Amino acid sequence: MYWQKRFNRKNPTEEIEQLMKEIRKQHKDYGYRRMNQELRKRGCIVNKKKVQRLMQKLALQVRSFTRKSRKYSS
């Protein structure tokens, strides 16, 4: 019964998700840290963990970053 009562609830993060999608259209390579800073600039103060969760949910995570490795030489 608990989950059935939650069907009609409004999504509390709807505004944040819309802002994140707008930012994503302008800046394709923003990760959760830059996204969080941009949200703060636009007046929406959100915890970084919440930004990370929402980016995973909306599939906005950046996949273009690759870590470079070098051979060790002493």
Task: Explain this structure.
It is a single chain. The protein has helices spanning 2-5, 14-26, 32-41, 48-57. It has a domain at 12-57. Helix 3 packs across helix 4 (48-57). It has four helices and no strands. The chain is elongated and about 65 Å long. By secondary structure, it is an all-alpha fold. The chain starts with a helix and ends in a 17-residue tail after the last helix.
Number of helices: 4
Structural class: mainly alpha
Specify the biggest β-sheet.
none
Distance between the termini: 65 Å
Strand coverage percent: under 5%
Low-confidence stretches: none
What is the H-and-E element order? HHHH
Q: What does the overall shape look like?
A: elongated
Provide the residue-averaged pLDDT.
90
Number of separate strands: 0
Cα-atom radius of gyration: 17 Å
The amount of helix comes to 40-55%
Short structural summary:
It contains 4 helices and no strands. It has helices at 2-5, 14-26, 32-41, 48-57.
